[in-house]
Design a protein that fits this description.
heterodimer; A: alpha+beta; Aldehyde Oxidoreductase, domain 4; seven-stranded mixed beta sheet; five-stranded mixed beta sheet; 20 helices; 31% helix; globular; B: 164 residues; alpha+beta; 7 helices
């Protein structure tokens, strides 16, 4: 043909620069000379126009999804984006989880990771463009092969329509491969969407309803052995000595070995490994953490807040002056405890080392880290590590912390067997990494008209960034080596303690309301507990403090809770609108006698959410009957999945609000399983209504923003029901 | 040797009789649809039917299954031949991460077998042993109600009326 055959990479670069919403220059920055071949299935005669789409000779349209599916529905969402422009129904696609490659980077992260409620907005333009350009090439190829004008052709779900004739896309593979795309194909106007914004099911529901969806724990390969790790009662403690002769003699046991985080027992079955692990005696070298109790944490945070010696975050105007001039001043302190994530699938990873090659099967939020981690542990080149993503049985941030993969790799190397490491539920609850505990104080002032004038907010607790750097830096920058990476992590600890706030520690504490005078202070108090992201991160506790305080201020100023919020969010018009719509819903509600309505609103991950909790209190027990949620998340790509995510955020947040709390006793987490770290169950689950405001803007986050408002909405309702202002989570009446 | 019926097939195993049924089914018979969640009978991810009753199999020794009939999620229906509950799970977009759903569906199937027309409270009571961290409870309940006898009768009636 007379056009030049462009490389896949320049095709993708062409796609990437389209569309103002895309963060250009992040997704496809690698130079092609160092680029690895794509980890896609090689099928004779298949056409792979870009990293995401493959057209097979039998007209199977395969979509490689780059984001981890942990329940948030991202597989359906991303397939919808591609399918919209490629003109292929997502339910007719063959969808595969992508391997590791730079083309699968999250455009907002610059690396292959899933989190921060970013996936849909990060890929919104990129994947539609990939679909549109592929369809344009198919149409052009069809026009040439059929000797017809492109303008006379159209498409329908994987077929090119030429008059009455239907030609599968695959008929034009050979011609399409020889063509180039000179300019990005135009994207559809929203009014023309056939899949985006339309109600639909989930592409993974049948697999998940029939037990055929494969999670990491379901991987089975020849000669697979199973490992359980005996772990220190105090997280992060090292082994001093081991007595394992009894365990070694137990049925099926093939190895007992010391690894970085404890003692691994390897056996022919999980059950045998678990039984034998119970017989291992370990003497632990317990460090400073072994002296601390839950009360120590809170007392140390209180002392830090009292001392006032922290790092200044945002500082605008003059808070002190504004507070002395205010007509209404109110101050309060709020507590949020340590939490475990407790996804239903316990952490696990399967690793097979075969000479200089390795294969890994696991469900993980940061696939980019897999080759580097296994390479370092096994001493083999990173490019020899093949990664197979599985479904994640829940993530909630936990599967962004990669310790389970490091352990599995260690065990596979030293036991010379293909190994599946499985954490027990007790490991999961007790070992972390945890959602940090937080003590927050807010002092607010308002003028005589109820306009907020001053907001002085402080938080004491640990920061999550240093631990994340500790595990992910060596994976992101293999040249660093462990010692340099550890050094950087320690420097970051000092940095966040002395020089700047860790954004995830204070996010959500101060941004939503109009107050000209704002001061944010952070006191880092780190007892050495491993910490990480937990669904909605800082917002999971700051929203509780902020929205409780707003309710308290409204009352102090003697203004209705909705009116007060509307009056003080003039600079946040979308949040203001969400509050208005939710307020109208609340005004129409007519709860039965003894039921009370509590309100909260919060912006997180660029999405605004308001929630109304209908609550009763009987014999000291808080019961949440109904939760009404109003949100503006821009374009809802799959409205039913948006609703499901908000429902899920409410249930996850309500579990924490009513029950969640880990307690330390001499450095050991006292809780161990679902009997003493209880989860909300169906009989305690409220009816949940979700109202999506269609604002027609580009999508914003959905996986997390439903969570932050629920705890304060319930606490604000409990106050109305009882007169008790509960400022500690979990909510417990006096 | 312990003999039992697994999804309609007579099978036998020589594993340690204390081994939980869950692990025998998963690791020896390679049926991976039933899940490990807590190992203590607290979450229901491992729920199977033993002689028709829902049972948490992570704490049920295989010895207790001798000569009994065990049904797992794989025996309830397949992607090509869905059980009505599995079809309802798809229709109502119930699953999120999906890890607990085998257990949820097995518990729901046992409920409907025993009580084809459960009230909301009866559904709560029957399903309270199954935890879902993704918070799919409202949809699970809706899906169960859609398969209950009343809902099916209502559907049949409205279809008849539609034709009339």
């Amino acid at each position: 043909m007379n056009t030049v055959n462009v490389s896949r990479r320049s095709f993708l670069q062409a796609s990437a620069v389209a569309g103002g919403g895309l963060v250009v220059g992040v997704a496809f920055t690698g130079c092609s000379s160092t680029s690895e071949p794509l980890p896609v299935a090689s099928t004779e005669g298949a056409w792979t126009p870009n990293a995401f789409i493959q057209v097979l000779p039998d007209n199977t349209i395969r979509f490689y999804t780059a984001r981890s599916e942990m329940g948030q529905g991202v597989t359906t969402g991303l397939a919808t984006l591609v399918g919209e422009e490629l003109d292929v129904n997502p339910f007719d696609m063959d969808i595969c989880f992508a391997g590791v490659h730079e083309d699968y980077a999250n455009p907002l992260f610059g690396m292959q990771g899933t989190g921060g409620s970013t996936s849909i907005r990060a890929h919104y333009t990129q994947l539609r463009q990939a679909g549109a350009n592929t369809r344009a090439l198919i149409l052009e190829a069809a026009a040439r092969d059929l000797g017809l004008a492109t303008s006379s052709l159209t498409t329908d779900n994987g077929y090119v329509l030429a008059g009455e004739a239907r030609h599968p896309y695959s008929d034009f593979i050979a011609m399409a491969q020889s063509l180039t795309i000179e300019a990005n194909a135009p994207l559809k106007a929203a009014a023309d969407f056939q899949f985006i914004g339309r109600e639909s099911r989930r592409v993974d529901a049948i697999a998940k309803a029939t037990g055929t969806a494969q999670f990491g724990i379901d991987i089975d390969i020849p000669d697979l052995h199973y490992a359980v790790v005996v772990r220190a009662p105090v997280a992060g403690t090292k082994v001093r000595s081991v007595e394992a002769s009894a365990a070694r003699g137990m049925p099926g046991v093939t190895n007992v070995l010391e690894i970085g985080n404890g003692v691994a027992v390897v056996a022919e079955s999980f059950w045998q490994a678990k039984q034998a692990a119970a017989q291992v005696q370990v003497d632990w070298n317990t460090g400073a953490l072994g002296q601390f109790d839950t009360d120590t944490l809170r007392a140390d945070y209180t002392a830090a807040l009292d001392a006032g010696d922290g790092v200044e975050g945002p500082d605008e105007g003059n808070v002190e002056e504004a507070l002395s001039a205010a007509s209404t001043v109110h101050e309060a302190e709020y507590w949020a405890p340590l939490l475990a994530h407790a996804p239903m699938e316990p952490m696990n990873a399967t690793v097979r080392i075969d000479g200089e090659r390795a294969e890994v099967w696991t469900g993980i939020q940061f696939p980019f880290a897999v080759p580097a981690i296994v390479s370092r542990v096994a001493g083999i080149p990173a490019e020899n590590v093949q990664f197979h993503q599985t479904y994640l049985g829940g993530g909630f941030g936990r599967r962004g912390a990669v310790n389970y993969l490091i352990e599995a790799a260690e065990i596979a190397v030293y036991s010379a067997k293909p190994v599946q490491l499985v954490w027990t539920r007790e490991d999961d609850i007790q070992q972390g990494p945890f959602r940090p505990a937080s003590l927050m104080r807010i002092k607010a002032g308002a003028d005589a008209d109820g306009n907020l004038t001053a907001w002085d907010a402080a938080r004491a607790g640990g920061n999550i960034s240093p631990d994340s750097l500790r595990t992910l830096l060596p994976a992101a920058f293999p040249w660093m080596g462990d010692i340099v990476a550890e050094g950087v992590a320690q420097l970051s600890e000092i940095y966040f303690k002395k020089f700047a706030t860790d954004n995830s520690s204070t996010e959500g504490l101060f941004e939503d309301y109009d107050h000209a005078n704002t001061r944010v202070t952070h006191m880092t108090v780190d007892h050495g507990l491993p910490l990480t992201f937990w669904r909605s991160v800082g917002h999971s506790y700051t929203a509780f403090a902020k929205e409780s305080m707003i309710d308290e201020m409204a009352e102090a100023a003697d203004i209705d809770e909705i009116a007060f919020r509307l009056q003080n969010t003039q600079n946040s018009p979308r949040l203001n609108n969400v509050i208005r719509v939710a307020g109208e819903q609340m005004a129409k509600m007519n709860p039965p006698e003894g039921h009370h309505l509590g309100f909260a609103a919060h912006n997180s991950f660029l999405t605004d959410v308001a929630e109304i909790a209908e609550v009763s209190v009987k014999n000291g027990k808080i019961q949440v009957h109904k939760v009404t949620c109003v949100l503006d998340c821009g374009q809802a790509v799959n409205p039913d999945i948006v609703r499901a995510q908000v429902e899920g955020g409410v249930v996850y947040g309500l579990t924490a609000a009513l029950y969640g709390g880990l307690n330390l006793e001499r450095g050991t987490i006292k809780e161990s399983n679902f009997h003493d770290y209880p989860m909300l169950r169906m009989n305690e689950s409220p009816e949940i209504e979700v109202i999506i405001i269609d604002s027609g803007t580009e999508p914003t986050g959905v996986g997390e923003p439903g969570l932050p408002p629920i705890a304060p909405a319930v606490a604000n309702a409990v106050y109305k029901a009882t007169g008790q202002r509960l400022r500690s989570l979990p909510l417990q009446l006096a | 040797m312990i003999q039992f019926i697994l999804n309609g097939q007579a099978v036998q195993t020589e594993v340690d009789p204390n081994t939980p049924l869950l692990w025998v089914v998963r690791d020896h018979f390679k049926l991976k649809g039933s899940k490990f969640g807590c190992g203590a009978g607290l979450c229901g991810a491992c729920t199977m039917h033993v002689n028709g009753a829902a049972l948490k199999t992570c704490v049920t020794p295989i010895a207790a299954a001798a000569n009994k009939s065990i049904t797992t999620i794989e025996g309830l229906g397949t992607p090509e031949d869905l059980h009505p509950l599995q079809a309802a799970w798809h229709e109502h977009a119930v699953p999120q991460c999906g890890y607990c759903q085998s257990g949820q569906i097995m518990a729901a199937a046992a409920l409907l077998d025993a009580n084809p027309n459960p009230s909301s409270d009866e559904i709560d009571a029957a399903m309270a042993g199954n935890i879902c961290r993704c918070g799919c409870y409202p949809r699970i309940k809706r899906a169960i109600q859609s398969v209950s006898e009343n809902a099916l009768a209502y559907d049949a009636m409205s279809q008849t009326e539609g034709r009339a």
